[in-house]
Amino acid sequence: MVTETGADIGEAAAAVRHVDAVVGRSGTSFFWAMRLLPRPRREAMFAVYAFCREVDDIADDEAAVALKRARLGRWREEIDRLYAGRPQSPIARALADPVARYGLAREDFLALVDGMEMDAGDAMRAPAMAELELYCARVAGAVGLLSVRVFGATGETARRLALTLGEALQLVNILRDLAEDAARGRLYLPRELLAAHGIASREPRAVLADPALGAVCDDLAVVARRRFAEARVLLAACPRRPMRPAVVMMTVYRRLLDRLVRRGWTRLDAPVRLSAAEKLWVALRHGVL
Q1: CB 281 within 8 A of CB 264
Q2: Which of 13, 19, 221, 285 is the most buried (most CB within 10 A)?
Q3: Helix (H, G, I), strand (E, B) or coil at 125
Q4: Are residues 130 and 97 in the same domain?
Q5: How far apart, in whole angstroms, are the C-alpha atoms of residue 90 and residue 19?
């Protein structure tokens, strides 16, 4: 029988405090959804989120591509250590219990790193629709797969929900962050939609200034709405209580999409968001009432 030493317990507590601080600083839209969970599951989601934040920050850094890929490579090594039972970083230590308790899959963490590698270079400039779908599956679907396991939902329906809702959420993020992404040299709008509306350029700022941008964004919003509709059907086939956080996130992001479409695509600097009070109301509506 293996028992924890005082040092082990102290390291575990420090790891939990570290991920709590990461979540607290982030201002994430997922906060209220995660707050619905019982403490062990909430702490597990905080650890998953902290990992996501860490690798996303690497991809968004202004460092050279080679350096960013090297740092992401070190995270691959840390994931190997995590599954070998000897994690070193505070975030990986915080993930050790959730991985064991909820059966979180190593390939889902690695898929997220794969997605961040796509962001680290210049691949995400008017990708083909198939490449955009792969990107969404990696950076959002993989997080969804980890999340539904933490929520307590298993099976093929929950898996399909994670991937479908993950794509919907990521498409909303893309539509919300057009200007911010362009400043980083990224353009996630698929080349098929650009071509369909006569936009030949692949330079992010030029595309955002094109008069046909609105038609492209409206078409991508239609795709996002379709994914939300598919997710709603899948949610109805899942156990209701474990999936409350997913319902909260779907509701928040559908509202955000509605507001983006109403604002339009000519004033991309005009922020579109839900207030903290509205997010709290959504959480209460779907978590308590």
Answers
A1: no
A2: 19
A3: strand
A4: no
A5: 8
